[in-house]
Every structure is written in structure tokens, then in C-alpha cells.
Design goal:
The complex is a heterodimer of chains A (413) and B (278). Chain A is α+β, with helices and mostly antiparallel strands and 413 residues long. Chain A has 8 helices and 22 strands. In chain B, helix 3 runs antiparallel to helix 4. The relative contact order of chain B is 0.06. The chains are: A alpha+beta (413), B mainly alpha (278). At the A-B interface, strand 15 and strand 17 of A face strand 1, strand 3 and helix 1 of B.
Chain lengths: 413, 278
């Protein structure tokens, strides 16, 4: 039976779900639309038994019960601990449990009765009471405290940034999230090496210019102007920002994309899209799964990375990540040595957290002028305790033909 | 400190031939290598829309390909194009890029004839004899106005002679080497002149030149030796016999037989080419 890792982002009118995709080592996200598209409606369950199938962004069908919307309770102005539905009094956590249970069973249906090994829920402006209610709901559903996490949006954003290689390398990132409350702006900063967590949220911007409810402005041109004000305000706050991420409904507006295109340059990379927080929550759950060393049979225990130069930084480039199924545990990368006669691999045991460096000498493989040796590096796990590293000389195009010499090293872990 | 560079983009199975050079590339790193090794020629191959398309489609670096295409479209300075290529991967570090751009600026500031000569020399080393001759000719023609000294002009004639050896033949080459020697007084040019006469079967001119230029016995021995060894090497080439035979037929007016031999040789070459490419 498959074991899934799930992230959920609770908005007031809808829920976004992120699922960990083991094959591509990334999350797949989609939204679960709510029935209401107007004002907040209280949670209730219509016991009709009628089911509606809704196709998510990734083409996965979801079945949720009609009229089921638990989110408004979390963000309603006068949240009560108990509510009356159809003459019966319910604890909020009980109703929330019903709502979350519906989503989980819908996902489970798509994955042939899969179990959930880790669940992470995030929400906008999550306060301690919200966290407690959600915790109670998950406990009611039978999930032990070690299996779920409740984090705020800032934390989910941080996880997303850290897990997204492309954005992480840009180093100074900012996210603009536009919703019905206005715009929230997070400034992300990578931390110094050696710190426990590789990044932190530098600050959360709260300026009056951000308060306007952008996506509720009906006039497209006015909405565009208001958004331009927000972007220019944000960019003046930190001139070193080299990555801008725009999320929320507004990210799909073509006029807004026009504005973003104008700002995009070689020094400022721009991403726009939905589902950032659900993905971030999912990454959080994945991290937790690996940190605890909860690895199933047939999954590798070690993360193998190679020290290499990319985007003007020498960094550990992961080739195989712990938790990867053994039959797919193969990593490949192409490297060009620059005055280097060895390749340094780092092997980290996810169970113990211990890391060791393995030097792979390039004797006999480098025999041309500097930087004209293209090497193919393949790492694989023939079994859970054996790592094989293979290096092959591919020459340098038509300039220097390949010798196809191969050097191999087997490491017993 | 040594490092391992992660390659960027795809590795194209199909090579891309850089314009006006004999260079071909499969990856963005190879392009950077070719630029650094051939600064005089990069102007020729970087302003090529097909190269931008290759980077976009074959190497999978869409953004960089588009950026290069934009630069070509607005006729941006060469430095911009070089920067776009260098910044597409991690092949060179920032300091190396800056040094290269500085060198490029220095070269742009150098005298015009030096720029043309360097370019012509690059064409020559890339066996692009046609373009090399065009550039050498322009230098010879405007030598006075460009302020080329007699010695430098002699060197230019010498290199033009080398290009002529591959295009127009021994006679034109010999004339260039003679003009070169009269200006630069280099033994290398003189020897090349005499060898060209010898190989061009201008024996009378060869003997006259030996007298005119007071050639020492030592040099004469060297020339005999060089001719002997060159012919020995060439005799291994079956094609050379056939070519000489064809040449003789043409001289004797047997045009139809000449074309038969040429057609047979061409067919053999095609066959060989097909074999290599299968």
C-alpha cells in the first residue's frame, strides 16, 4: 500500500492540496474548490450522500461532499467552539475533522486506498487557536501528533524557497501574496552556512500600500495600476532582491503578468503561480519524514551529493536523496574539472545524520588541457548498503574526442 | 583552488558548425571555449541567428538563445554577445570574463591593420583560405594609408602566400613569398619562395633565384632535402598519382579522359564520405 505525504493550505473559500511525488522529487499541487463563492458560510455537512467529482490542476479527480466547507470557521470573525448544524450541536474540531476527512478520503480514492505517513497543514494568519482546533481535528481522525504538523504561511513559504533549487540559488527572494486581506510580502534570506536551518524570513512587510484588496478590483486597468504600486513599493524596500515570486489569484491575471514581464531582467528573476503554500507545507512534511528516519523497506537511507560549481557557487548538488526507492536510486551529472584532480562526494546517512566525504581520484581520466574534459558521473545503489560511483570520459565535443575511459569505485555503507 | 564545473543545458548530438571557422560545438561550454581561443573570429560566428536558435532549441537554453537573438537583432556590441554566452554557464569565472572583455576592448582599440591581420591569420589557421586572402589583399592594397611598415607588409605577403598555396597554386604563392622576402628579409620567406618555384616546376626561375639571391650551399642542400622528403611523403598518396595523371591528360588536350578520371575520383570520395557518415 502506498504511503503518501500531503500538504494542505487552508484559505477561507478553498483548500489547496500538495502531494509529494516521489518519482520527480517534487510536489504536485491543485486546489479543491469550495461551493461558496461569496461570503463566509459556516461549516456544515449535507448528509445527501451525493458526491461531486472535481478535476484538480493535475487531472486528479477529487470527490468531496457537496456543501462541505470547513475553512470559513477558522477565519470567521466570531469563531465559536461549538456550532449548531441542523439542530445538532457540534464541536468545531469535530466538523473540521469531517471536512479534512473528506479531503483525505478523496485523495485516498485516487491512490487506491493509500495511507498518509505525514500531513502538514498551513493557513493564512494561523493563530494558536486555529492550530489547536486543527490538531484536535486530526487527533479525532486518528493521526498521532508525530504524523502531522501545523505551520503558518511564512513557514510554508520558507520551506518552498529552501526546497526549490531554482529560487534558492537566486539568494535574495521576495514573495507577494495577494488575497482578500490585501497583500503580504515576505523577504527571504539565506542564512550563513552552519546554521541549523538554511534560510529565514527576514521580515514580513506591512505597509498601507499593501492593504488594498487587489483581486477584488473589477476594473482591470485599475487593478494593474494598483499592482504596479505594490511591486514598485516592494522593490524599493530591498534593492538587492533578485527573485520575485507572485502568488494568489492575481498571479493568473494576464495584465498582472504584463507588469511582471516589464520588471523581469537578467538580475531579477520572476515567478508567478498558485499553490506555493500547499507545496511548502508538503515539503515540510517530507523533511519531517526524512528527519525521523521513517524510511520504508526498499528506500535508500543515504543522500548522495557531489561538490560542484554551479551558478557561481560551490555547493553540494544532490544526486540521490534518501527515501528514494531502491530501484530508482540512480543519479547522473556531467562535470568539467577545472584544475581539479578529484571529485568529492558527500554521503549523508539520514537515520543518524552523519555525513562523510568520499574523494574520487581522476587519475588517468584527465589527460587534456584544463577544462576540456567532460565527465559523466553516475551513482547508483545496487543494494541498500552499496554505492557504486562510475566516472566516464566523454571528451570535449568535436574539439577533443572522447576516450570513454571509465573509472569505478564501490563504497560499502 | 580546483573545482568541478556542472555543465549547463543539453549536449546536442548534432554538432553546430561555427560560421567562418572549422570549429563545431555540441554544448554551451564548448562555445565558451571556442570564443576564448578564437577572439578574432567570434565576431563572425556570434552574429549568427542560427547559433541563437541552436542554443534555444538544441541546447535547451531558451532564455539565453532568445537573449542572444535579441542582441543580434539590435546589432548590440560584440562584448554584449560574448557576455550573453559566457553568462549562460559556469565555464568561466567572473574575473576571467572581465579579463577577456578587457582584452577584447584592447584589441578593438588597436590599429585597424593589426585587427585585420589578426583576423586574416585566424582564418588561415582555420583553413578558411578564401576569407584570409580577402583580408590580406585589403591590407596590401591599403598598406600606405594604413601605415603598415615594410617589414610587416612582408609578413603579410608571406601569410598570403601560404593561403595561395591552398587556393591559387604555387605560381601565385611564389610571387607572394618573393614580395615578402624583399620586404622582411626573412630566411623563411626566401625558402618558401624557392620551394614554391621548385614544386611549381619553374626550374628556370628557381635557378635564376638561386643566383639573384646568392643562396648558400647550405640552404641549397636544405632545399633539396626538403623537396626529397616532401615528395617521398606525397608518393604514398595514391590520389596524387591520379591527379598528376589527370593534369597530364588535360595538358595533352584529352579533355574527355580528364573528366572520366575526375568523375571516378569524385565518386570514390563520395563513397568514402558515406562510409564515414553511416
Amino acid at each position: 500500500m502506498a504511503s503518501l505525504v500531503l500538504g494542505m493550505d487552508f484559505y477561507e473559500k478553498e483548500v489547496y492540496v500538495g502531494l509529494w511525488n516521489e518519482e520527480e522529487r517534487c510536489t504536485k499541487s491543485f486546489n479543491v474548490p469550495a461551493k461558496s463563492d461569496g461570503e463566509h458560510i459556516p461549516l456544515f455537512v449535507v448528509p445527501t450522500g451525493k458526491e461531486t467529482f472535481i478535476a484538480g490542476h493535475e487531472g486528479i479527480a477529487y470527490s468531496i461532499r457537496e456543501g462541505c466547507n470547513g475553512v470559513s470557521l477558522l477565519y470567521g470573525k466570531n469563531v465559536k467552539e461549538r456550532v449548531e448544524v441542523n439542530g445538532m450541536v457540534f464541536e468545531i474540531s469535530e466538523l473540521l475533522a469531517g471536512f479534512i476527512g473528506d479531503i483525505l478520503s478523496a485523495v485516498r480514492k485516487c491512490y487506491a486506498g493509500a495511507a498518509f505517513s505525514r500531513i502538514c497543514i498551513t493557513g493564512e494568519r494561523m493563530n494558536p487557536d486555529d492550530s489547536r482546533r486543527l490538531s484536535d481535528a486530526l487527533l479525532r481522525l486518528g493521526y498521532g501528533k508525530e504524523r502531522f504538523f501545523i505551520i503558518n504561511h511564512a513557514n510554508a513559504f520558507l520551506r518552498y524557497m529552501v526546497s526549490s533549487d531554482e529560487i534558492r540559488r537566486r539568494q535574495r527572494a521576495v514573495t507577494i501574496d495577494t488575497d482578500s486581506f490585501g497583500s503580504e510580502v515576505y523577504f527571504y534570506n539565506p542564512a550563513d552556512r552552519g546554521m541549523g536551518f538554511p534560510a529565514y524570513i527576514e521580515r514580513l512587510e506591512t505597509s498601507p500600500v499593501l492593504n488594498e484588496e487587489l483581486y477584488t478590483i473589477a476594473d482591470g486597468d485599475k487593478r494593474k495600476e494598483a499592482f504596479e504600486d505594490v511591486v514598485s513599493y516592494v522593490m524599493t524596500q530591498d534593492r538587492n532582491v533578485n527573485c520575485l515570486y507572485v502568488t494568489g489569484h492575481i498571479a493568473e491575471d494576464e495584465r498582472i503578468k504584463d507588469v511582471l514581464r516589464r520588471y523581469a531582467s537578467a538580475s531579477l528573476k520572476i515567478f508567478s503561480g498558485q499553490n506555493l503554500y500547499s507545496s511548502g507545507a508538503c515539503y515540510r512534511a517530507v523533511d519531517e519524514k526524512l528527519k525521523d528516519g521513517i524510511l520504508s523497506d526498499g528506500e535508500v537511507f543515504h543522500t548522495v551529493s557531489v561538490e560542484a560549481y554551479k551558478d557561481a557557487v560551490i555547493d553540494g548538488i544532490p544526486l540521490i536523496k534518501a527515501g528514494c526507492p531502491l530501484d530508482r536510486a540512480v543519479g547522473r551529472i556531467y562535470l568539467i574539472p577545472d584544475n581539479s584532480d578529484k571529485i568529492v562526494f558527500r554521503i549523508r546517512d539520514q537515520r543518524t545524520g552523519r555525513s562523510e566525504a568520499v574523494n574520487f581520484p581522476l587519475d588517468g581520466l584527465i589527460h587534456r588541457e584544463n577544462r576540456t574534459n567532460r565527465l559523466e558521473i553516475t551513482v547508483r545503489f545496487p543494494d541498500i548498503k552499496t554505492l557504486v560511483i562510475k566516472v566516464r570520459d566523454l571528451g570535449f565535443g568535436s574539439i577533443y574526442p572522447a576516450s570513454y575511459r571509465v573509472s569505478e569505485q564501490t563504497i560499502m555503507l | 583552488m580546483g573545482k568541478m564545473i556542472v555543465t549547463e543545458g543539453n549536449y546536442s548530438k548534432k554538432p553546430y558548425y561555427l560560421k567562418n571557422s572549422k570549429l563545431s560545438i555540441h554544448s554551451i561550454e564548448e562555445l565558451c571555449y571556442c570564443i576564448t581561443k578564437n577572439p578574432e573570429l567570434c565576431e563572425d560566428f556570434l552574429y549568427d541567428r542560427d547559433l541563437a536558435a541552436f542554443i534555444d532549441e538544441e541546447l535547451g537554453l531558451k532564455e539565453r538563445g532568445n537573449l542572444l537573438a535579441d542582441c543580434i537583432e539590435r546589432d548590440a556590441p560584440l562584448k554584449d554577445l560574448v557576455t550573453v554566452c559566457f553568462c549562460s554557464c559556469d565555464y568561466l569565472v567572473r574575473e576571467e570574463i572581465e579579463d577577456f572583455l578587457e582584452e577584447l576592448s584592447r584589441s578593438e582599440r588597436s590599429e585597424k591593420w593589426i585587427r585585420i591581420r589578426n583576423k586574416a591569420d585566424s582564418y588561415l589557421s582555420h583553413e578558411n583560405y578564401k576569407n584570409a586572402v580577402i583580408n590580406y589583399r585589403s591590407l596590401v592594397k591599403d598598406a600606405g594609408s594604413l601605415g603598415i611598415t615594410s617589414e610587416n607588409l612582408g609578413d603579410i605577403y608571406h601569410n598570403m602566400g601560404i593561403a595561395f598555396l591552398h587556393t591559387e597554386g604555387f605560381e601565385s604563392a611564389a610571387e607572394c613569398f618573393r614580395l615578402a622576402y624583399e620586404r622582411n628579409n626573412r630566411e623563411e620567406s626566401l625558402k618558401s619562395y624557392l620551394l614554391s618555384l621548385k614544386f611549381g616546376e619553374k626550374n628556370d626561375d628557381y635557378r635564376t633565384a638561386l643566383d639573384v639571391y646568392n643562396i648558400s650551399e647550405e640552404t641549397t642542400d636544405w632545399l633539396k632535402n626538403a623537396v626529397f622528403h616532401t615528395e617521398l611523403e606525397a608518393s604514398d598518396e595514391a590520389e596524387l598519382y591520379e591527379l598528376r595523371e589527370a593534369e597530364q591528360l588535360l595538358k595533352n588536350g584529352r579533355v574527355s579522359d580528364f573528366y572520366d578520371i575526375v568523375a571516378k575520383m569524385t565518386e570514390e570520395m563520395k563513397e568514402q564520405y558515406r562510409k564515414y557518415n553511416d
